[in-house]
Amino acid sequence: MLNDKLKNYNIILASASPRRHAFLKSMNIDFEVRLQPVDEVYPNTLKGTEITDYLAKLKAEPFKNQLKDKDILITSDTIVWLDDKPVEKPKDKNDAFRMIKSLSNKTHEVMTSICFTQTTRQKVVNTITKVTFKALTDDEIWYYVNTY
Questions:
Q1: In principle, which of 2, 98, 124, 135 could form an S-S bond with 105, CB 3.0–4.6 Å?
Q2: CA–CA separation, 78 vs 52, rounded Å?
Q3: Do 115 and 143 touch, CB atoms closer than 8 A?
């Protein structure tokens, strides 16, 4: 049914994420990938899904003048939210260890926004998933950091 609705459109995914590629492929949606670098900086006054909504829209900006009438551009952003602030991506293995340790034995939220952009309109949707980690030992965390 979705494929019937999209058959007259050119779906453009502005993401290098293998997970996002696999998601669209799993739904048998034909799409092309286009990438543009974007400096993912947001106002520090934003909270939660305000951040992901903002960044998903920001990622669409470089493409706006390139879109044609039958194009649908998909951009997205995801953050981990813990203790009323975003958990930044780790800079190295030690930072990854610290980050995962901060999630150990706690519940955090994973927030994702998806922005659909066409020549005449733009729509953003978002979702929040609560994730609870069991208490992790340092050995378990290091195994994960070193393996994945």
A1: 135
A2: 6
A3: no
Q: What is the pLDDT of residue 1?
A: 66
24/6 Cα distance (integer angstroms) = 12
Q: How far apart are CA 58 and CA 62, in angstroms?
A: 8
Question: Rounded to 5 degrees, what are φ and ψ at 91?
Answer: -85, -30
**Taking all residues of the chain, what is their mean pLDDT, rounded to a whole number?**
95
Please, which residues have CB within 8 angstroms of residue 142's CB and are 6 or more apart in sequence? 97
Q: For 86, which DSSP code?
A: E
Which of the residues are catalytic? 77
- 3-state SS assignment for residue 44: coil
Q: 29 exposed, middle or buried (CB, 10 Å; 0-12, 13-18, 19+)?
A: middle
CA dihedral 124, 40, 65, 20 (to 10 degrees): -60
